[in-house]
Specification:
By secondary structure, the protein is of the alpha/beta class. The chain has six helices and eight strands; from the N terminus they run E-E-H-H-E-H-E-H-H-E-E-H-E-E. The chain has a single domain, classed as Uracil-DNA Glycosylase, subunit E.
Length: 195
């Protein structure tokens, strides 16, 4: 089912418990969902858009542009296609309370590919959406640009963009390009890549 909305910022109408909030942003019908930590870590406190106004945002948006998700290499209000950006913690407050907002947004978007950026989002995604939490290190550096099968999701961990070393950006571009060239859609409850 396709969602019909012209809103790219907070298209699901989430109401944050605290301000300032950096709500989810992007294509409400996206298959790829990028999940960062928060505005302090990945930017957007001034713009209200995840992954902006920061080194992490500039590097990540460059990748999104390279694979065709973003219209420009960088923008404070990126035009995104098939990609959605959000944070584990959209506003200041109790982390456990705030995670329920991401969970609701994840279920509303129902993307096929989750891209947790950094260790905290990776741990959350591994614990909540895979059966791999005990088998894999919760270390985005070690799992960068790999594929982890989840429960209805394929997870592609992303190392902290501010800490990228030579080859990290290219590895992520290559992984995303390969997924886009495949039938990456996940069967909810089976979690297998077809093709």
């Amino acid at each position: 089912m396709k969602r019909v909305t012209d809103r790219v910022s907070n298209p699901f109408g989430m109401r944050a418990p605290g301000e300032p909030a950096v709500h989810g942003y992007g294509d409400a019908n996206a298959d790829f969902h990028v999940i960062g930590a928060d505005a302090d870590t990945h930017g957007g406190a001034d713009t209200g858009v995840p992954f902006t106004d920061s080194t992490a945002g500039k590097r990540l948006q460059r990748v999104l542009h390279s694979v065709g998700f973003a219209a420009e290499p960088y923008s404070d209000g990126p035009e995104l296609t098939n990609c959605y950006l959000s944070y584990l913690h959209l506003s200041p407050g109790d982390p456990a309370d705030l995670e329920r907002y991401l969970d609701a947004e994840l279920r509303a978007l129902n993307a096929h590919i989750l891209l947790p950026v950094g260790d905290a989002p990776l741990s959350y995604v591994l614990e909540e959406f895979t059966t791999q939490a005990r088998k894999l290190p919760h270390d985005a550096d070690r799992l960068h640009a790999s594929e982890v099968r989840g429960r209805g999701f394929l997870v592609v961990p992303v190392r902290e963009p501010a800490d990228w070393e030579p080859g990290d950006e290219e590895a992520l571009i290559d992984r995303l390009a390969a997924l886009l060239d495949s039938d990456y859609r996940q069967t909810k409850g089976v979690a297998t890549t077809v093709g």
